[in-house]
Every structure is written in structure tokens, then in C-alpha cells.
Amino acid sequence: MSAIFAVRLGFIFQTFNLLDSLSVIQNVMMVKRFAGAGKKEARKTSMEYLARFGVDKLANMFPPKISQGEKQRVAIVRALINGAGLIIADEPTGNLATKQGMEVVDFLSRSSRDENRCVIIASHDGSIVKYEDRVMHLTDGELQ
Asked: By CB distance 3.0 to 4.6 Å, which of 20, 24, 37, 73 could disulfide with 41?
């Protein structure tokens, strides 16, 4: 069961769920280590992914000291780092300014396309529809 969550499924929370007592790199490495990677490999891969998402300069900072957009990018890195084929994002733009939100959706869209991942986004934000391949609507718990 843990292999499914460690490797096959990545989850991006609306509220980021980064651990404030861990640095950015430690927040990301924790997921890689949980999947069985050694410390050296986890650090190297984490830094590569942080660089890819433009937040590598924050590696030694702690979540309370970084912006909302930076927190969301770190949360995306954490979800993608183990190569999960399925990424579930719960309101990934909910706590972000419009520009930051569109950057996040663009990151997820590119990841889906370039790395052949399935990305499911649950959102009330209608402006992200243009990025999506398929849109489904739920109203009062019923699929429309």
C-alpha cells in the first residue's frame, strides 16, 4: 500500500502541507526517502527538481519564510519527485494570486504533457479550463 502513495500517486494540497520545522530541501527529500532512496540520491534529485521549478535558491529556507507561490511550487516538486503517474491537485490555485495560479497550472499542464502523467485538478477556478484536455463538472455531488 505504501508503494502506491510513495511512487504512483502524487498529491498537491490546497494548503501546501509543508512541514514548517523542515527546510524546503528536507520537505522534498522526505518523500524521496520514504520511497526508498538513499540520502545522497534524494538530495541530488530534490535539488534537480527544485531547480527545474525555479525554487532551488530556497532549498535551505523554511516554509514560513517563503511566499505562497514558492510554497506551491515546492509542493508540486514534492508531488512529482517520485515519478508518479497520477497527480491529484486539490484547488492548487486557491491560495495564490492570479499570475502565480496560472504559473502553477502551466507547470502541471507541462508535466502532464511532457512526462505522460495524468493530472487531475479539483478546482472552482474557471480560468484554468483552457489548460485542460478534459473538463468534468460536479454539482451537489453529481457528475454533470
From this structure: 37
Q: pTM value?
A: 0.84
**CATH number assigned to the domain comprising residue 94:** 3.40.50.300
The structural domain count of the chain equals 1
Q: Report strand pairing: 86-90 vs 118-122.
A: parallel
pLDDT digits (tens, 9 = 90+) for 91-107: 888 878 888 888 888 88
Query: 89 has which bridge partners?
Result: 12, 121
d(CA 84, CA 77): 11
Instruction: Please write down the HEC assignment for all residues of the chain.
Output: CHHHHHHHEEEECCCCCCCCCCCHHHHHHHHHHHCCCCHHHHHHHHHHHHHHCCCHHHCCCCHHHCCHHHHHHHHHHHHHCCCCCEEEEECCCCCCCHHHHHHHHHHHHHHHHHCCCEEEEECCCHHHHHHCCCCCCEECCEEC
Between CA 102 and CA 108 the distance in angstroms is: 10
Give the residue numbers spanning the domain of 54.
Answer: 2-143
